[in-house]
Each structure stands twice: as C-alpha cells, then as structure tokens.
Amino acid sequence: MLTADTNSLTQKHNQGLNSPKNANSSLFLQDAAEHLKEHRDGWSRLRAKDLVSLLLCHGARAWRASQPVASIRIRVGSPLGGHSVSLKLK
Predict the structure, then answer these.
(1) Residue 77 lies in a domain
(2) Does the N-terminal or the C-terminal CB of the chain have fewer CB atoms within 10 Å?
(3) Using CA atoms, how far apart are residues 82 and 90, in angstroms rounded to an integer?
(4) Is the CA virtual torsion 67, 56, 46, 27 positive or negative?
(5) Is residue 20 part of a domain?
(6) Which residues pair with 74 in a beta bridge?
(7) 41-44 long-range contacts, Cβ below 8 Å, gap at least 24?
(8) What range defines the domain where residue 45 resides?
(9) pLDDT in tens, 7-65
C-alpha cells in the first residue's frame, strides 16, 4: 500500500499558488474554500444583502442570456475618403 505525507503534498501544491504571479488567485481560492467549508458545516456568513445581490446578479445574467444576439458595425471615414476606423462586433 502506498502512503504519502499529506503535509508535504499540500506544501508542494501551495508553493505554486503562493507565487507573486498567482497571489490574487490564491486569495480567491482560499476564500472560496472557506465559503464551501461554512456551507458544509451548516452555517454561513452570508448576510441578507449578500443573498439579495446574489439573486440580482443571477437575474441580470439570465436576462442578458435571454436577449437576442446583437451586432454592431461602425465605420468612420477619413477626410481623404478612406476608412480611418472600421469596427465590427458580434
């Protein structure tokens, strides 16, 4: 049977996350893990305003997803007769 030291595995895993380049993602992952732990334990630090903002965010996302696809085409002419800017978004 293979055994591994969990502390050394966690340290190796966290070394990549704690690099300066991944500092923000490390904090985000730690915060997400804390939230998951709170929900697993049966208590949450979510307040009423957090729940309301969560519902508003999901409602806005659903509304944006239900909107028809829009495309924008902008052409700006130059004084010399050509197109100085041509932008097409879908």
Answers:
(1) no
(2) N
(3) 23
(4) positive
(5) yes
(6) 87
(7) none
(8) 7-66
(9) 554 554 455 544 445 556 677 788 777 777 776 666 666 678 888 888 999 999 999 88
